[in-house]
Protein: Glutamyl-tRNA reductase
Amino acid sequence: MLLCLTASHKNASFDLLEKLSVDSAVVTSALSDGIDFVSGAVVVATCNRFEAYLDIDEPLTAAQAVAVEAATAAVSAATGVEQDELRGSVDVVSGDRVAEHLFAVSSGLESVVVGEGEIAGQVRRSLEEARRLGTTSSELERLFQRASQTSRGIKNRTGLGSAGRSIVRLALDLAASRVTDWRAARVLLIGTGSYARATVAALRDRGVVDIAVHSPSGRAEGFAARRSLRPIHGDDLALEAVSSDIVITCTTAQEPVLDAALLAAGRLQGFSRERQLVIDLGLPRNVAADVTSVTGVELLDLETISLHAPLEVLDASQHARALVDKAVRKFSDVADEKSLTPAVVALRSHVFDALDAEIERARSRGDEDGRTEQALRHLAGVLLHTPSVRARDYARAGAQEAYLTGLEALFGIKVLAEPASIAHPDTGAATA
Structure:
């Protein structure tokens, strides 16, 4: 059974999201290694979202409740967030709704800025990290690969993402009222990851020429050389920070990379801007809240940015939702068909066992004509064709139990339904 625990800008505070985003690898391992009935785990952690996707066995009748409680405890232990806080802020998605949810997330339909492009790459990298950790399963692989295919299809077939919609560009839209001339603006970028690359592109689209970059992890030189930027080393960071009109942070650092003390140290070197805007795109926060105590400094963080997110582009998002629904049906059809595979295998074994016994009896009576055996095997294949096709039809219609009942009534073959075919509640609060 697939299960997803999700916290995002829609149902959780940014303080909670910040705590949950500390180390996704640790959380992934805790979920996979710490719970006996979890056969796979992938964690998606972004600036506005924390989601744990689980492939679980069903050890008990109340499998979902047991799994949610165990997963909540594992996340709590890995992040230090109290279980009660998680229960009140995390939503649970299960069954077919997991595919629907992830496909919508990876396509940007659940983002602060609908259609933003970064999320597809973040989802893809989450799967890659799970592979590195050895925590994926065949069903999670299929789920995430289909999600990537769906997001690419939506990008190519709808208007979403066509204008480079992203949290980065929204932040710059909000900053526009504070910038007289983008071409004359001096910008310091702290970070060299995917958000930093998107930020450079967005700044240049606005005409910004003077962009410097600093990397807490020491990657500024290479990043700057490839993009014709100015690399800033640690000793020069304070002066560059106070010399810039705009400072944009987007690192994965666990501690703030910019605070009031750094700005004060820069101003002691004899330079400061009358007005300065700091944009914090990091989660955990890259900028300490005390920067606003420095005269002339204004802070624009993710929480503030999300409050100004534009309404959905209706036509494009409706088309995208339709494509998601189609992809979910296809994903579900494959899962449903697989749910009756043991029954079809059992029926084939039953028929071919009887066939082999009959062929042996014929041989014992002196019938060594190979044409008889060939004819019998052909007949068996013909007879099995219709039940195999009907198995797919019944599975897609959600009538697995009817098929299994008929199989037992006609042939005495008893096969338990696969867990994937059992109906589960779609969503609910993360309570036991």
